[in-house]
Design a protein that fits this description.
The structure holds 4 protein chains of 4 kinds. Chain A is mainly α. Chain A has one domain. Chain A is built from 15 helices and 2 strands. A two-stranded antiparallel ribbon of chain A has the order 1-2. Chain A starts with 6 loop residues before the first helix and ends with a helix. The relative contact order of chain A is 0.13. By secondary structure, chain B is α+β, with helices and mostly antiparallel strands. Chain B is 24% helix and 19% strand. The chains are: A mainly alpha, B alpha+beta, C mainly alpha, D alpha+beta. Chains in contact: A-B, A-C, A-D, B-D, C-D.
Chain lengths: 361, 173, 180, 381
């Protein structure tokens, strides 16, 4: 297909040039540095974009205008917020365990960075094509809960502790149904690698060719992803009407900003994974044998497809947040253990049967 | 969430439980979708937005004429007001907001006549209860439609309502 | 010294230092966090050796599961914030001796074992290979151990539920709560 | 369980009650869960509430004592600052009580205007409550949607009374000013908008499964308890206690109007929620009956400039948005009351909180406080 300059082309050009100029070790180091800088840059951009997006979505849902002072239509509002958070004093409470208190936001952000590695952002553009990509993501994301527990305990604040306990119970529980709904796709593709999962959807996204079981898995995945990222209606760890701000009550300034950033980046990551597994990653949208239509779709760069799908899911999660009230802790666990888990287990059986019998397209 | 039998309950109730379970799931999903449709409607219909951009709309913004912003004393073009200095407002005020300082003018007939020297108004004490306006027998004071009262020093909130050199209007007793 | 070696020593440093700190720390919560770093360091070794699957499982089971459970049980214990009492000197000596003995045992094994270098590149297992091995009923298959472990876990789970379940009549009712 | 940093307000009592494993947290006086400066000392067992102790007085301004130094015309403005969400109704009660002592008959026009204002205030208060209630449960959007209708009422108030919250419009003898010429049209517009938009709340709040599960079977207050705690208003009517002052002790011509006293038998948070939703519709019904039938005439009876009440005791109760509000005046015959006492609904309703909250989860406490519709200046005065 007639690709213009794509991300993979650019990365190849850089790679070739580096290989021609330096020896392999230096090439590797420079490429690692470039990747690191790109991830940090992506973090910054994601933080800025997602915060302004959240504020605009909430404003429009709530018949408000939203931020409209800084820059055109308030688009630079989140930059002003960032500057404010940067220059703010980072307080550490007197009774806090200072080492762990300061370590917790770092762990949150490092985990979010690690999760970026296996995501396929565009055609042939992936930092680390690890062959157990899905497993890697669910493994590393389980470390996230540690940072919340650490922050909650080290703050020496009862609200924080309650928030951390809630969050721990919540994340540990919802990992199960998130994992099971991911396994549904893994069964259909027979691979854990993101690259292969995307390539298995070349003739149609799983959500279309997987019938109702995959649709159910998708719904469960979105619910579990919302819960795992601690967002409303599952924001019990923060629950501002009950626990002030939950586990990050005592955090301020840049330390708070790191938690905040990690939350948004995690939202991005779970949505990216959802887009990869169910919506075909960077695969363009094709309809059967409509050649003209498919060619037009192919002409859109793959990175745009990926970002479009991811941001659609992010919007969906934001839409949830501004529509639903929060659950209570026992209802939250009921929902997981009495509804999502049995349904996803039954669904997994259906998917397995479907995969064995080859009922999908 | 459901009030049906527990999952491990009697086998006979198992089928009914399953029906109830599925019903609960569907009604939950339906209620969620109904709510999301409503919020989605507002997300896409920006004409419903009701907020005003306050400091920008100062020119077009109109407060109703009865709005109680602060007490003012209207003067006509000859710098005359209608206040006789009867202290009815001072008495009516629950907070001691108004202080009437009187003096004695000499009328052209050579008689002494009571008049106001200063009508001191403490905006910082005022609760905008409108009692002074109602109490005034000569309609000398009224409520103004201002509301941006913030100043850096509270002494600026103590105001003298009558203009310097103003006189009482003819015919007001 | 290549980059790979540097990474190895860094991981070893992380693992060892946090292991020592986990043992010597007198704050139980911090000890748990140091233990976490030890486990992460070990997962790092697996990644370093390119045994990605085992590394991921290490993180899921030990970091995401066991450490979270440990932290939870610390939260639920009384006086989690207090410093632990200093151990008696006799006990410390005994512990050091025990550690030394087991260290010596491991080292002895390692020295006596003849590591053979193979040129076999097929050590990186695919997921399909792992799955087939796991469910194979042949001689070197793991179907039986797998099932035995599952039954053990099931038994443990049922035991937990039985312990956690309180009979209805011992639950505090409204009246008891009011009297409090 | 935790390093001891608890600030316990009443040490002896709490230490005596504290058992092993108790976890005491303070909610308030500055806390997003409390709609004002209320301090709750909550004893938790895990997430389950063992005891709730409200500590009051953070916004006590000794309004009752202040009123004793103000004349009968002046003291009414202070009562707007108690339950600021039903300030018209508070003013109304005071005016009625003073009129009882003066023994004046107020003109019919003033009566109708007063009832209209009361009912508009009631709707505005319930609208705010509905939004705040949803916000307590974590849903932010309904807050802004209910404020849209509330804003219309505020505009009507601003046009006629000159203020949006503390109007001081109802005075002894009638009302302070005549209604604005636009009043009737604007109220009709409001009624039209309100009836077309109230259904949306069913979609995003009432019908929502999460919301229903958070409300149903939560915060049980039985009929007997509601009576013995002295609960009034929607909090008691949710438990089936018939206590609408407009029905049982009609004042100002409520006896001539067609409206229902709303009763629910659920005894839980959801019943109290539904009471308020349905009460708004009854208020609309009252407004629709009156808005085209405002009699012509004076808006104020002829009264002396200085009011003197004869020696004696006077009591008047009205139904505010939160319950029964009573004014008790002891007069020694002078221009100022000798003693004045307000019976505020919030205080009695708050006393039931501990009873309702025991045994439920921390998250539900917020919902219960929401359904009691506490306004803290009303409790503290």
């Amino acid at each position: 297909m007639g690709q213009m300059i794509s991300l993979s082309e650019i990365s190849k050009i850089i790679d070739n040039w580096l290989r021609a100029t330096f020896n392999p070790t230096w090439t590797l180091i420079i490429e690692m540095v470039i990747a690191g800088v790109c991830v940090i840059g992506l973090f910054a951009v994601l933080g800025l974009v997602l915060v302004i997006m959240e504020r605009k979505v909430s404003a429009w849902i709530q018949i408000r205008l939203g931020p409209n002072r800084v820059g055109p239509k308030g688009m630079f509002q989140s930059m002003a917020d960032t500057v404010k958070l940067l220059v703010k004093e980072g307080l550490t409470p007197d009774g806090a365990d200072k080492f762990l208190f300061n370590l917790a936001p770092l762990i949150a952000i490092v985990v979010a960075m690690l999760l970026m590695a296996p995501i396929a952002f565009a055609r042939d553009f992936q930092m680390w094509d690890i062959n157990i990509g899905v497993l890697y993501v669910s493994a590393v994301s389980s470390v996230m809960v540690i940072s919340i527990l650490m922050a909650g305990w080290a703050s020496n604040n009862k609200y924080s502790l309650l928030g951390a306990m809630r969050s721990g119970a919540q994340i540990v529980s919802y990992e199960l149904s998130a994992g099971l709904s991911i396994i549904a796709i893994v069964i259909l593709t027979g691979s854990l690698s993101f690259n292969e999962i995307v390539h298995s959807q070349v003739d149609g996204w799983w959500i279309f060719k997987g019938h109702i079981p995959v649709l159910i898995a998708f719904v469960i995945f979105i619910i579990a992803a919302t819960a795992e990222t601690n967002r409303a209606p599952f924001d019990l760890a923060e629950a501002e009407s009950e626990l002030t701000a939950g586990f990050h009550t005592e955090y301020s300034g840049m330390k708070f900003a790191l938690f905040f950033l990690a939350e948004y980046v995690n939202v991005f990551i779970v949505c990216a994974i959802g887009a990869t597994l169910f919506l075909g990653g960077w695969m363009p949208f094709h309809i059967g044998s409509w050649q003209g239509f498919n060619q037009v779709m192919d002409y859109i760069p793959s990175s745009i497809w990926f970002m479009g799908k991811t941001f659609f899911l992010i919007f969906l999660i934001m839409w949830f947040r501004w529509t639903f009230p929060r659950l209570r802790i026992d209802q939250l666990l009921n929902l997981e253990w009495k509804y999502l888990l049995p349904i996803s287990m039954f669904n997994l059986l259906l998917v397995t049967a479907m995969a064995i019998l080859g009922w999908h397209f | 969430m459901s009030k049906g039998l527990p999952l491990w309950g009697r086998f006979g109730g198992g089928f009914m439980f399953l029906i109830n379970y599925i019903k609960t799931v569907f009604s939950t999903v339906k209620s969620m979708l109904v709510g999301m449709r409503r919020t989605g409607y507002y997300f896409t219909h920006h004409k419903e937005i009701i907020t005003e951009e306050y400091p920008d709309n100062r020119e077009t913004m109109h407060l109703p004429e009865r709005f109680k912003g602060e007490v003012v004393m209207p003067h006509d073009e000859k710098n005359e007001h209608r206040c006789t200095g009867c202290t009815a407002c001072e008495l009516a005020c629950p907070n001691g907001t108004i202080k009437v300082v009187t003096k004695f003018d000499i009328t052209p007939e050579g008689k002494k006549k009571k008049a106001i020297d200063k009508l001191v108004y403490h905006l910082e004490l005022c609760t905008m209860c409108n009692l002074c306006i109602v109490a005034c027998p000569s309609d000398a004071i009224k409520m103004a439609q201002t509301f941006e009262h913030s100043v850096f020093d509270r002494s600026q909130l103590t105001k003298v309502l009558n203009n310097p050199g103003s006189k009482i209007m003819d015919g007001v007793e | 010294m290549t980059g790979s070696t540097i990474i190895f020593y860094l991981l070893a440093l992380l693992t060892l230092v946090s292991a020592v700190l986990a043992v010597t720390s007198r704050q139980i919560f911090r000890a748990a966090i140091y233990l976490l770093f030890t486990l992460i360091g070990i997962a790092g070794f697996y990644f370093w050796m390119q045994y990605d699957f085992i590394a991921a499982v290490q993180i899921i089971v030990y970091v995401g599961g066991i450490t979270v459970l440990i932290i939870f049980s610390i939260f639920l214990t009384q006086q989690a914030g207090e410093l632990l009492p200093k151990q008696k000197i006799g006990r410390q000596v005994f512990a050091a001796a025990a550690v030394f003995c087991s260290f010596a045992l491991v080292m002895l094994q390692m020295i006596n074992h003849h590591f053979t270098v193979t040129a076999d590149q097929s050590t990186t297992p695919t997921i399909a290979a792992i799955g087939e091995k796991m469910l194979a009923t042949t001689e070197d298959g793991y179907a039986l151990p797998f099932e035995v472990v599952s039954i053990l876990l099931l038994a443990a789970m049922i035991g937990c539920i039985v312990i956690a379940m309180r009979p209805e009549d011992t639950l505090p009712n409204e009246q008891d709560l009011q009297q409090k | 369980m935790y390093r001891e940093t608890t600030i316990v307000a009443d040490e002896n009592q709490n230490l005596a009650a504290k058992e092993a494993g108790d976890f005491i947290i303070n909610v308030g006086p500055q806390h997003p869960a409390t709609h004002g400066v209320l301090h709750l000392v909550i004893t938790l067992n895990g997430e389950t509430i063992k005891k709730v102790e409200p500590h009051l007085g953070f916004i006590h301004r000794s309004i009752e004592k202040m009123c004793e130094s103000l004349t009968y015309r002046q003291f009414i403005y202070v009562t707007s600052r108690m339950d600021y969400l039903s300030s018209h109704i508070n003013n109304h009660a005071c005016a009625l009580c003073v009129e009882k002592g003066m023994q004046v008959e107020i003109p019919g026009r003033a009566k109708v205007i007063r009832i209209l204002m009361d009912e508009l205030t009631r709707i505005a208060s319930h609208e705010l409550w509905l939004g705040a209630m949803a916000m307590d449960l974590g849903a932010f959007t309904p807050f802004f949607h209910t404020f849209r209708e509330r804003e219309l009422i505020n505009d009507i108030m601003e046009e006629t009374c000159g203020a949006r919250l503390t109007m001081n419009y109802i005075v002894p003898g009638g009302v302070m000013q005549d209604i604005h010429p636009n009043f009737q049209k604007k109220v009709k517009d409001f009624v039209k908008q309100f009836t077309s938009k109230i259904g949306e709340m069913d979609e995003i709040v009432t019908g929502n499964t999460i919301f229903q599960n958070r409300m149903k079977g939560v915060g049980i207050l039985s009929k007997e308890d509601a009576v013995s705690f002295g609960c009034t208003g929607p909090a008691a009517r949710g438990s089936g206690v018939s206590c609408d002052t407009r029905k049982i002790f009609p004042y100002e011509g409520y006896e001539k109007l067609q409206f229902d006293e709303i009763l629910e038998n659920g005894c839980d948070s959801f019943a109290r929620y539904m009471i308020r939703i349905r009460e708004m519709q009854q208020s609309i019904r009252i407004i629709e009956q009156l808005i085209d039938n405002i009699p012509e005439g004076d808006f104020q009876a002829k009264t002396k400039a200085v009011i003197k009440l004869p020696k004696g005791e006077f009591y008047q109760r009205v139904e505010t948005a939160r319950g029964q509000f009573g004014v008790f005046i002891v007069s020694e015959g002078g221009t100022t009351p000798y003693r004045i006492k307000f019976r505020s609904p919030g205080f009695s309703n708050l006393s039931a909180l501990d009873h309702m909250a025991r045994g439920s989860k921390l998250g539900d406490l917020v919902a219960m406080m929401g359904t009691l519709d506490l306004v803290i200046p009303d409790i503290d005065r």
